[in-house]
Design a protein that fits this description.
Number of strands: 0
Distance between the termini: 80 Å
Radius of gyration: 27 Å
Shape: rod-shaped
Largest sheet: none
Length: 94
């Protein structure tokens, strides 16, 4: 049986409560050692991708995606200008 303060803690934090439900070994761990609640926080943060390193990785992925999209837009713009120049100057040979 889990202590009342741990149940209240989990009731206030639905994501951690769901984590404990998905990983039942935490019921035993918290029942035997209530001080493990701090470890639960760090483990659930890692599971949900809330650590600094994971957030930084996601940010890097988004920056790389935006960079790729900007490069692709520039390439398409250059291609359109080259096509326009080719249609405006029919004397040019490719």
């Amino acid at each position: 049986m889990m202590r009342a303060e741990i149940q209240m803690y989990l009731d206030q934090r639905p994501e951690e409560k769901l984590f404990v439900r998905m990983h039942p070994e935490w019921y035993r761990m918290l029942g035997r050692n209530p001080q493990a609640i701090s470890r639960l926080k760090s483990v659930s943060d890692q599971y949900y991708g809330r650590t600094f390193g994971q957030r930084l990785d996601r940010f890097n992925q988004r920056v790389n995606m935006m960079s790729m999209l900007v490069a692709m837009a520039q390439a398409m713009s250059e291609q359109k200008s080259a096509q326009r120049e080719g249609t405006l100057n029919p004397d040019r040979t490719a």
